[in-house]
């Protein structure tokens, strides 16, 4: 990025030279065209300068086109460099965030959960274990009971079973 800034400063310095060069070529082509027209159209020393002026003008146009191309590429490169810099900054922020989370996860794995979090997790696990044991006990009691003969009683047991399954 710094090298490109230095390059752009150099281009800026050369822009003045390009303007001066264009002005000089314009003046030369004007003076050669006015001197060839004032000589009455004869070829007494003026014919070569007209051809030279045309060639000089063509070279100046080519130089100007190349100058514009270089300036355009420089601006384009500056835009790409700035976009790359923004992406690098975003990437750096994401890496920093990731490393922070990774450090926290490493501490958790190394030292375990903190005391309040650990107690809360253990309580949840104990409650779940008690509930599973109670559910298993209730199921085993029901399995031991004989099936009733009445249709109404079967419907009631089916409803209770459906409620129990919903709770699970």
UniProtKB/TrEMBL annotation:
Q: Extract the Gene3D superfamilies matched here.
A: 1.20.58.60
What SUPFAM superfamilies does UniProt report for this protein, alphabetically?
Spectrin repeat
Source species, domain of life:
Eukaryota
**What is the name of the protein in this document?**
Epiplakin 1
Provide the species name.
Gallus gallus (Chicken)
Encoding gene per record? LOC121109863
């Amino acid at each position: 990025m710094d090298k490109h800034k230095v390059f752009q400063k150099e281009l800026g310095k050369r822009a003045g030279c390009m303007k001066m060069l264009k002005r000089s070529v314009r003046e030369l082509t004007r003076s050669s065209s006015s001197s060839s027209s004032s000589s009455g159209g004869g070829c007494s020393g003026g014919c070569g300068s007209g051809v030279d002026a045309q060639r000089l003008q063509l070279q100046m146009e080519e130089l100007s086109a190349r100058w514009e191309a270089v300036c355009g590429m420089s601006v384009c490169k500056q835009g790409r460099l700035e976009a790359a810099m923004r992406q690098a900054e975003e990437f750096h922020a994401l890496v920093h965030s990731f490393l922070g989370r990774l450090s926290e996860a490493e501490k958790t794995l190394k030292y375990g959960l903190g005391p309040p979090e650990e107690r809360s997790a253990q309580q949840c696990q104990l409650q779940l274990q008690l509930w599973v044991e109670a559910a298993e006990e209730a199921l085993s009691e029901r399995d031991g009971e004989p099936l009733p003969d009445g249709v109404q009683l079967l419907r009631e047991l089916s409803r209770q079973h459906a409620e129990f399954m919903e709770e699970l």
